[in-house]
Design goal:
Layout lengths: L2 E5 L2 E5 L5 E2 L3 E4 L7 E4 L6 E4 L8 E3 L4 E4 L10 E9 L4 E11 L6 E2 L3 E7 L15 E2 L7 E7 L6 E5 L11 E3 L3 E5 L10 E10 L5 E11 L7 E2 L3 E10 L8 E2 L5 E4 L2 E2 L6 E5 L6 E3 L5 E4 L7 E10 L10 E10 L15 E4 L3 E4 L11 E4 L7 E5 L6 E3 L4 E4 L15 E8 L4 E8 L2 E10 L1
């Protein structure tokens, strides 16, 4: 238990418990009266300031709040130790508060409260994080500044280095008059940790003038592999038939029929998109699926295409081209087995190609109708052939946003591709192929059976 004797304005104390000290608190010389210095929080505690010398500058409220009461300019550059007595019904303890009053113009600060940078994964040791310049300064010259990482640097993955130097430093802190940078001490793996949050501290050489800076570092994914096709060469047979209604038995090819499908895989797990190396009037490829679609009439019995696969990594990579050989086979209907059904006459009508332009903002609201497919008769109904993540098609022909459109997720072609089946009550079906590149195109070849 502590014993206190008050004599001639001086307080003499003998404490049986050790005095509790605190870290140094720096106060600007121009803070106004009422500035909160520290708040002591205790249960049923009463606090008393024991230093008469500083009673005109500080006061301690009953709730434990230590605050200024006057201009601190007379205490400039002075180191103060304030003794605080804490009393409870059952015990007493003493606290020591260390203060330093400094000229605000000499107080260190960073130009921003926080920085955000990045570094590629697997970058070699000594690679600097891509960040704006790091430097703490004061309006008045305070001389060289010491920098160190005080938080978030588990396993010492990062270190500081003067901006003008190279190599890997051998010490944890850096003293510099100029800029400093953060470097990686070893290669980092984005799959292990995607980001790190560090706290840097700048200190003058006396160790009393300090400033902290929060830094977030993202480890960027490295696209290390290009897509690869499952086969180097693909062979597809495209079946046609002879038109018996013509005297010369002209070959007939089902436009927009499915020729075949190519497939590529990516070792990094990126999504893969497809394209023709050279655009062709004979066939098109669906970027998201790799399906090859017959778009025109062949000029001969054989054709050759080259297809590419692209990934969505950063930087994006593309595959070596794969060869696609097409053989156009014509069947004579006389040679085909007869089917026990009534022969129906086949006619073809081709609608004109349409082009509709859209922006990314048009697809921001899920469920929003972006356009309506045109009907030739009131009996036509529409249905999307394959599930599509971006759009849905109502039976009435209304195309709606299914998922908010994201330009970055659309792949290198920046398209939304899907097939729509149109049925006419009592008749057959027809297909519409839609492709969006911030634009939507569609072609349709109608068959009425």
């Amino acid at each position: 238990m502590a014993r206190f004797v008050l004599a001639s304005g001086a307080l003499l104390c003998v404490l049986s418990a050790a005095m509790q000290t605190s870290a140094l608190t720096v106060l600007p010389h121009d803070v106004r009266p009422g500035h909160a210095v520290r708040h002591f929080e205790g249960n049923y505690s009463r606090y008393t300031l024991l230093d008469p010398e500083y009673a005109s500058y500080f006061t301690l409220l009953d709730d434990g709040l230590l605050m200024t009461t006057a201009d601190l300019a007379p205490l400039l550059d002075q180191s103060l130790n304030l003794a605080i007595l804490e009393q409870t019904p059952f015990s007493s303890s003493a606290h020591s508060v260390h203060l330093l009053v400094v000229d605000r113009r000499k107080m260190l600060s960073f130009a921003t409260n926080g920085l955000h940078g990045e570094i590629p994964e697997n970058a070699p040791a000594g690679t600097a994080v891509d960040l704006p310049p790091i430097k703490a300064a004061a309006p008045l010259n305070v001389g060289p500044v010491a920098y160190k990482i005080i938080k978030g640097n588990e396993n010492s993955l990062f270190a500081l280095r003067e901006k003008t130097k190279t190599g890997i430093p051998g010490v944890a802190s850096v003293i510099s008059d100029g800029d400093v940078e953060i470097i990686a001490m070893r290669p980092l793996d984005a799959e292990d940790t995607k980001s790190y949050d560090l706290t840097l501290q700048a200190t003058d050489l006396r160790g009393s003038n300090k400033a902290n800076l929060a830094v977030r570092i993202d480890v960027t994914y490295e696209n290390g592999h290009e897509p690869n096709f499952e086969q180097d060469i693909y062979y597809f047979a495209v079946n046609g038939s002879l038109d018996q209604n013509c005297d010369n038995e002209t070959a007939h090819w089902q436009r927009f029929s499915n020729i075949g499908k190519v497939h590529a895989y990516d070792a990094d797990g990126d999504r893969v998109y497809y394209s023709l190396k050279t655009p062709s009037n004979l066939a098109v490829i669906v970027p998201q699926t790799g399906e090859l679609i017959l778009a025109g009439e062949p000029d001969g019995h054989e054709a050759e295409l080259e297809v590419l696969a692209h990934d969505t990594g950063s930087p994006p990579r593309k595959s070596r081209p794969a060869q696609v050989f097409l053989e156009f086979v014509v069947h004579n209907k006389k040679d085909l087995p007869a089917l026990r059904r009534q022969k129906r006459r086949v006619t073809r009508a081709v609608r004109p190609t349409k082009r509709i332009e859209f922006t990314e903002a048009d697809g921001e609201v899920e469920g929003r109708a972006v356009f309506t497919l045109e009907k030739e008769t009131d009996r036509e109904t529409f249905k999307i052939r394959d599930e599509n993540p971006w759009v849905t098609v109502e039976p009435s022909g209304v195309v709606k946003v299914k998922k908010k459109w994201d330009y970055e997720e659309l792949g290198p072609e920046k398209t939304i591709d899907f097939w729509v089946t149109i049925t006419n009550a009592g008749n057959g079906g027809k297909f519409i192929y839609l492709s969006s590149e911030k634009k939507i195109y569609y072609w349709d070849d109608v068959q009425t059976l």
